[in-house]
From TrEMBL:
Free-text domain note: Contains large globular domains required for ATP hydrolysis at each terminus and a third globular domain forming a flexible hinge near the middle of the molecule. These domains are separated by coiled-coil structures.
Gene: smc
Similarity-based family: Belongs to the SMC family.
Tree of life domain: Bacteria
UniProt protein name: Chromosome partition protein Smc
């Protein structure tokens, strides 16, 4: 399920709507310090259902909205769309192409869309459960995360292995069943 496109609109430093196309093979994103490379990986985690503002280097989720600069006024909305080629049907959704959109308004309202249909955060997370990627999986390693993993407690490190082994999915289902 190759990632084919990422569209950032009002997310962090991306005040201007920006589309990144991912072609076959490896894509490298290079740029000077502070040019927005980490913001791109954060946008990917955010649209996949990251719920911790702190792990996106903010204090409130609204901090992901473009906050203004010397030349531009702040914006009222951040929106990110991630498009996957799902011909191999690795994502748990019956479509050959899957787009996921997340948007947040300064008023605090936020929503998710899967192929332009409204969805809940848990629906978005469920898409990825068997794919081995998630907002916090080792598929995305942010600056400082290696140290954090090495220094984490054994129980926390265990979660990483459970996710890689595909056990986490069943564990979450069990927890859900138990709370019902
Ligand atoms: P480095 O090479 O140092 O890791 P980087 O390319 O990863 O840099 P980022 O950390 O992605 O850079 O980008 C940081 C920039 O994004 C800073 O200039 C910061 O002011 C800007 N930024 C972060 N959040 C917002 C926001 N909500 N609104 C506007 N700009 C923002
Ligand atoms: Mg960076």
């Amino acid at each position: 399920m190759p990632l084919t496109e990422l569209v950032l609109d009002g997310f962090k430093s991306f005040a201007e709507k920006t589309t990144i196309h991912f072609n076959d093979g490896i894509t490298g994103i290079v740029g000077p310090n502070g040019s927005g490379k980490s913001n791109i990986t954060e946008a990917i985690r955010w649209v996949m259902g990251e719920s911790s503002a702190k792990s996106l280097r903010g204090t409130n989720m609204k901090d992901v909205i473009f906050a203004g600069s010397q030349y531009r006024k702040p914006l009222n909305k951040a929106e990110v769309t991630l498009v996957f080629d799902n011909k191999d049907h690795e994502l748990a959704f019956d479509a050959d192409q899957v787009s996921i959109t997340r948007r947040i308004l300064r008023s605090g309202d936020s929503e998710f869309l899967i192929n332009n249909q409204q969805a809940r955060m848990r629906d978005v997370r469920a898409l990825f459960l068997d794919s081995g990627i998630s907002p916090n999986s080792l598929a995305i390693i942010s600056q400082g995360r290696v140290d954090q993993i090495l220094n984490s407690r054994p129980e926390q490190r265990r979660l990483i292995f459970e996710e890689a082994a595909g056990v986490l999915h069943f564990k979450q289902q069990k927890e859900e069943a138990q709370t019902q």
